[in-house]
Amino acid sequence: MDGAVWRDEWGHRFAVIGDVGGQRDALRGELARLGADPETGDLPHDLVVIQVGDLVHRGPDSAGVIALVDRYLHTQPGQWIQLVGNHEARYLAAPSFDWPERLDDESVATLRGWWADGLLLVAADLHDIGGEDILITHAGLTEGYWRRVLGAPADVGRVAQLLNAMIGSRDELLFRPGQMLGGGRPNLAAGPLWASATTELMPGWLEAWLPFSQVHGHSSLYDWAQDRFLVDRAIAGRTRLDLAARHAVTTLDRGRIVGIDPGHGATAVASWRSWEPGLG
Ligand SMILES: [Mn+2]
């Protein structure tokens, strides 16, 4: 489906940005590539950004990333859709995992304000991109969670609505862990902030009919640093890699699952891009 950038009925184009991990300069650089003013950072008026969560930790400037996003949420509302990652959720409920870094109090207060004000979502959805519907979450929606918790709705808009309606009232269920927290066997009903792409998200959907396509961050089927797949050939054989963008696109029977976590660490990776509907 490589072609021109897709636009909605109001002429908006979209960019879905993977995990930022405290890399403010890398985020600013990608936004400038997308047409943001390199000086002021202002977004071009036709652009809507969807960021998949994990804004913070690992990199040098988590507070700067939070402040930047907070500015977009308030000065260009409707042009920035912020999803919650497990690294944000750590500050929204009793901490479920240890992490060597601690956000400053002001950043924590900002995150909690977003959650209380409905500015931090669990899911976003895009309709009819060349016939394809797409659900966007931090870690991906597992088959088990979609079936058992949500009741297996086929409509992507309904799924996003159900997930976002749980904010503030069912946080424990939204933050349901999987194998990445506490280990143990893969949980094919792991929650949308914690599902592991390799052992939970992909294996569950490989055996089922995907009701809509998905874009997620959080983890990757491919180890970009070591240049190797972390999954078996049944999944790797269905997966196309964009090494420069750090996107892994797995095509299943009725849709695809696109992983866009660039894998930033203490330093930002040199080459990565957001995922832009219509471009591939
Ligand atoms: Mn994550």
Automatic annotation (TrEMBL):
<dbReference type="InterPro" id="IPR004843">
    <property type="entry name" value="Calcineurin-like_PHP"/>
</dbReference>
<protein>
    <recommendedName>
        <fullName>Calcineurin-like phosphoesterase domain-containing protein</fullName>
    </recommendedName>
</protein>
<dbReference type="InterPro" id="IPR050126">
    <property type="entry name" value="Ap4A_hydrolase"/>
</dbReference>
<feature type="domain" description="Calcineurin-like phosphoesterase">
    <location>
        <begin position="13"/>
        <end position="149"/>
    </location>
</feature>
<dbReference type="InterPro" id="IPR029052">
    <property type="entry name" value="Metallo-depent_PP-like"/>
</dbReference>
<dbReference type="Pfam" id="PF00149">
    <property type="entry name" value="Metallophos"/>
</dbReference>
